[in-house]
Structure prediction request, 574 residues.
Amino acid sequence: MCSLQSAIMSCEKGDGDPMEDPLFILESGEVYRNPTEVKMSQIVMPCHANHCGELSVGQLLKWMDSTACLSAERHAGSPCITASVDDIHFEHTIGGWCSSVHTVVNIKAKVNRAFTSSMEVGITVSCEDLFSSCQWNVCNAFATFVARRTEEGKLKQVIPRTQTEQMEYSIAAERRRMRLTHAEIITDLLSKCQEYQGAVSAERTRVESVELVLPPHANHQVSTFGGQIMAWMENVATIAACRLCNAHPTLRTIDMFHFRGPSHIGDRLVLKAIVNNAFKHSMEVGVCAEAYQGAGALRHINSAFMTFEVLDKDRKPRTLPRIRPEPVDGKRRYQEAIARKKIRLDRKYIISCKQTEVPLSVPWDISNQMYLSYNNVSALKIMAARSNWMLSSEKNKVSLYTLEENQILCFKVETHVTVPAEQAFHLLSDLRRRHEWDRHYQWADEDDTIYRVATPCVSKGGKGQDFILLASRRKPCDSRDPYLIALRSVTLPTHPATEDYTRGEVLCAGFSIWEESNAVSKISYYNQATPGVLPYISNDIAGLSSSFYGTFHSCNKYLEENRDSLAVLSPSDL
Prediction:
């Protein structure tokens, strides 16, 4: 369950409810509630608590899995099984601000998007203390469920009705793309890992335990609950972590993982855990679950990687001893843990953080390209999903809209062209040709999907600006998706700032191209204005100039003149 967003603590009495009212009033006046939404509320009892008096993460995982499964089955109309879980980052524990026992845990799950036979379920976990009215979020998570059978053989599509649902529907395709490339990124990073020789043998932390799957451990499909398996895995992982640090560890992150096969009543589930690597303030524990019946062969059920910290009395992370890996498999696990830590930091830095907490231009390298691309496309989709755009002016069938929220100005320029959507997508994707219709772009140097763009100065005697832009391109997954070209600034060591240009930055910009018919497309250009961009559009927004209309009239002309030309893009760009 991907906390591709960090859990945010909010504990102000009477100010917002983490389990907000799921009823919405649509523009038509219709009262709407998401038909796939399922809510669960549980009081934490002593039997649910761990040795620290806080809710056991294993128990929480069981509740989350059950809630998400019920949501998936409500949409599919048939039994569903847990296929995979994205990263879970626990920013705060259940007992973080108060005693865990008697705290109420609220879990909400709903289907964000359905694909052919799988669906993404979004899960929100929050807590409340009934005695103080204190409320806080614990984590946001995402799980993938597969329907075992449907009457039509294909899942019905999710139809988003609200702005939030539209945003989640759109970004779900990006999260799916990231899941499919996760293994490739690990492979690419392994060759760059350096081994550190520590003093503590990894074998000292090895744990093996067996569980007999009984009826209480099974779901209504007579298969072992995915949440129950995760709870058992968390238990042995905690023991392994304890053996390294000789203290009570705190689970911070569970990496993305996939269920390889089902387990059933009567299975003997063998759970193995070992500390793969220890860093300064954290350690990674690898856990494997295998099943067998009688004298049968072992079946691989699941593998997971969990990150633990050890907190001192001031709740600050303690320094941990280093691990000495055993030969062959131990060395491989040691190196893979370093690669996963790099990916974990990239995800947390690029995807999880609020935009105000990171610089506009994030350093780019091949190992974080997927996460930068995810952030790039998702930011554009979120901006495009907003419904409160205000029409500022209109001229020659080109409309200029503005949106101002939290002291951030965004603008949108929209027009229609008599060019097929796919051809418009290919033509606008090539920034090397943008100067043919946009005078603000002089030229671009291309390196795969990275462009250096130079623009003229808007005032006499000043310097021009240059931008290092990452261009992320996406074709639609289905008819409810547009073609997208997302742009954002990145930094490259090979392209430092120069004296001839002022280095500008773009936080979020790009094109959304909708197919209106076989020959007509609606093109929308979005930009979240930054100091580097404002000089070029301030007069247009204020109504003192109409240069943008001339630019998009040129864009329309450029597209129509080249509607029959061939534009070639690298498959990796799509």
In short: The chain is about 25% helix and 30% strand. The radius of gyration is 26 Å.
